[in-house]
Amino acid sequence: MFDKPDFSSYSYSDLLDAKEHIDKEAYPERYAEIVNLLQTRVQPAEPREVPEEERPISKYSTFWPRFFAAMLDGLVFFVVLYVQCLIFGIEYDANDNFLQAVNGLQFAIYAILMHGFFGQTLGKMAMGVKVLNHDTETKINLTQALRRESVNLGLNIVWFFLILTVGGSFELHGDISENLALLVLGFGVFAFVWAVSEFVTMLFNDKRRAIHDFIGKTVVVRI
After folding, report:
1. What range does the domain containing 204 cover?
2. Alpha helix locations (H) across 119-220?
3. Is residue 73 a contact partner of residue 123, using CB atoms and an 8 Å limit?
4. 88 and 30 share a domain?
5. Does residue 48 form part of some domain?
6. 139 bridge partner residues
7. Are 132 and 119 in contact (CB under 8 A)?
8. What are phi and psi of 10, to 5 degrees?
9. The pTM is what?
10. Interatomic CA distance for residues 71 and 201, integer angstroms
């Protein structure tokens, strides 16, 4: 005669299977025990796919906060440049390349100092994101902030001197040379490719790191 199975050690699914296949007429006591055990156990919840809107937001999901932070910082520097024009008696013109080059250079320095000392620009503070060291996720220093912004700073320095050179050429010769024109064009193409590459890079890694984050060994997180 077969030993009686120890149904108490069965899982919920095993009990369901035993209930389905047991001969109720031959083993009524066993059937009753299985039913009783099923009634005292809670059926495991079915795994449910969590809707996207209910999923917790990753601390690295910073694309839009960074976008709006940049807009806010740009607005701040528009005001700064406008006030500077009033102080120095210069007429503000949004199409003045020299003024925009000065603004870009100031902005790059501002980003380095703010990130180096606080890990955030004013825009990032408002949007609740911060730049941290990638490996340790601790505060970055001024050297790391400089390395992170090195390409943007370099581009703004080159653009500033290109504007001066072009302006000087027009002042002296009324025109610019073909080589200078090609240099300006090449710079514009490089700056455009750099900007697009920054954007694309952010979309294709889990921590939304742009190229300058890889250069600076940094990551931007929600706080």
Report:
1. 54-222
2. 122-127, 142-148, 150-173, 178-203, 211-216
3. yes
4. no
5. no
6. 132
7. yes
8. -75, 150
9. 0.73
10. 20
